[in-house]
Amino acid sequence: MALEAIAPWAALVVALLVFLWLDLHFFARGREPDFREAAIWSIGWLVVSLAVALVVWGFQGSDDAVLYTTVYLIERSLSLDNLFVFLLLFAYFGVPVERRARLLFWGIVAALVLRGVFILAGITLIEQFHVVVYLLGVALLVLAYRIFKGVDENVDPDKNLMVRLVRRFYPVTDDFREGHWFSKEHGKRYVTPLFLCLVAVVFADIAFAIDSIPAAFAITRDPFLIWMGNVFALLGLRALFVLVEGLISRFRYLDETIAVVLGVVGVKLLIEDVVKIGPIASLAIIAVLFTIGIVASLLADRRDPDSDAKQEERAKRTLSSEDDEGGEGDEGGEGGPGDGDGNGGTGAGAGAGKPAADRAESS
Questions:
Q1: pTM
Q2: What single DSSP character describes residue 34?
């Protein structure tokens, strides 16, 4: 019996390692991917993820296959938020394009580990204290409201507790030291801006795990299905990252659609003791909501004579953090290796204060 319980988890972990290896070694290794290549890989990951539903159907039945697909759809849409924040962080720290793949890879690994922890902790709490279900439902409604109203989330690394702790104990180099996390110079250990960015990415992963896992609990309490949905939702984010700018400009109602979906799953959590919504109905509702959001975005852009200009403006507004964030960076740096007391270098703060092109040259 124990072996039967462990076997699915072992198979999922093996599949995860294989897919991560394939993504890391074959998708634009050592170079910047183009849009067409990223689109092909993204479609490929979608096909793989949906094919997994057929595997689940064969081993565990149609209900579990539908539950997995619903969790995957929700988590995949929420993963776009991860990418937007990662993009802001990369701009803030001036991470060169050739260094981003490695950061994204470890960001995905961290997200998978953290979500696994939150899934197990959440299910344990729900089993012990049923009132947690209602708290999660309310939290999802609040999050949905904030997204719908466009409340900006604070992603300023200078205010990030983990980043500040690292800066307190380690000086920061003034460039990326050929992509290393650490650098030992003059008998002293330094961290690079790349490591600081990784810390900020992990901190963002924690926040996203807190936001996204409750949405999965509204669909199922099976930890295997939830984690599997998260695994395949996060696989291929490196390819999807290249498409983010196009998604921002074309999907006008992305935030509103995600907000409505979160609101619906929040309500589902709150009423589950009174109204039972089956797996197929849940999947149908989520799919219809996303379809409406996509169609509404396309129609709105087509009917608006200034849609092209507005699409470009939306993309710029989301992606133009380099100048806005960078202007505040000059005071945030720690000492670089120019002086052993931690006052000589400019560190990540100054790196963020430069234009992106200048920062990239220093790497």
A1: 0.71
A2: P
3-state secondary structure 205-226: HHHHHHHHHHHHHCCCCCHHHH
Please provide the DSSP assignment of 37-79 as one string: HHHHHHHHHHHHHHHHHHHHHHHH-HHHHHHHHHHHHHHHHHH
Please give the Cα distance from 30 to 100 (Å, whole number): 10
Say how far apart CA 173 and CA 149 lie, in whole Å. 39
User: So where are the chain's domains?
Assistant: 2-361
Say which residue the tokens 């959001």 belong to: 293
Residue 333 has a pLDDT of: 42
- DSSP-derived letter for residue 172 is B
pLDDT of 71: 92
Closest listed residue to residue 99, CA positions, set 90, 108, 107: 90
Q: Which of 83, 13, 25 is nearest to 237 (CA)?
A: 83
- Helices vs. strands in the chain: H and E counts, helices first: 16, 2
pLDDT at 53: 93
Regions of the chain with pLDDT less than 70: 1-4, 28-32, 81, 150-163, 166-167, 169-180, 182, 185, 245-250, 304-363
